[in-house]
Amino acid sequence: MVRNFLSAISNLLDALAKSIAGILALIALATLCLPALEKAVSTFIAWRFGAVGYVYYEIGEDRKGALDVTGDGNLRLLSADRYLFDDIKWGDKLQSSDAASFRIGPSRTERSIFVLEKPNCVVVFSKSKEIDVTDAITGGWLYVGTTSCGLFN
């Protein structure tokens, strides 16, 4: 009788493990096929398991007149057609082009938690506040979480 009970429990646990594995496989497949779901999953994982804080993002003109990250921001939006602070949305990824401070609050006076080194990435949760920049075109503070940059980064 005990043997039958243990066998039934074993079968139940086996079925449960297979069901969970199947559900996870479906989610993984869906994230490959649906970019919005991939963005939601990666943002949730960064919020739940990554370091959470604030980074400064700023875009200015380089010596040739082209728009590029400034030495104050050091973060590049991983999107070919968007770059301004107003263009940044929830779930966007930014990659550090050089050392960028990851802060506890949206101000340069706030303590730096650590420094994002090239090529670390963060994912945007929200725009904290836009700054009136003087030597750049656009800039502001972003509430972000650390994340992977992609498959090969």
Explain this structure to me?
With 153 residues, this protein is α+β, with helices and mostly antiparallel strands. 31% of the residues lie in helices and 32% in strands. It has helices spanning 2-33, 35-49, and strands at 52-61, 67-69, 75-77, 93-96, 100-103, 112-116, 121-130, 138-147. The strands form 2 sheets. Strands 2-1-8-7-4-3 form a 6-stranded antiparallel beta sheet. Helix 1 crosses helix 2. The longest helix is centred in the N-terminal third of the chain and has 32 residues, at 2-33. The protein starts with a helix and ends in a 6-residue tail after the last strand.
The major sheet is characterized as: 6 strands, antiparallel
- What class do helices, strands and sheet pairing give? alpha+beta
Number of helices: 2
Q: What share of the residues does DSSP label as strand, in percent?
A: 25-35%
Shape: elongated
SS elements, strand count? 8
* Mean pLDDT value: 81
- Low-pLDDT runs of 5+ residues are none
Helicity range of the residues? Answer: 25-40%
> Looking across the biggest beta sheet, what order are the strands in?
2-1-8-7-4-3
> How would you spell out the order of helices and strands?
HHEEEEEEEE
| CA-atom Rg in angstroms | 21 Å
Number of domain modules: 2
Q: Distance between the terminal alpha carbons, to the nearest Å?
A: 55 Å
Q: What's a concise summary of this model?
A:
The chain is α+β, with helices and mostly antiparallel strands. 31% of the residues lie in helices and 32% in strands.
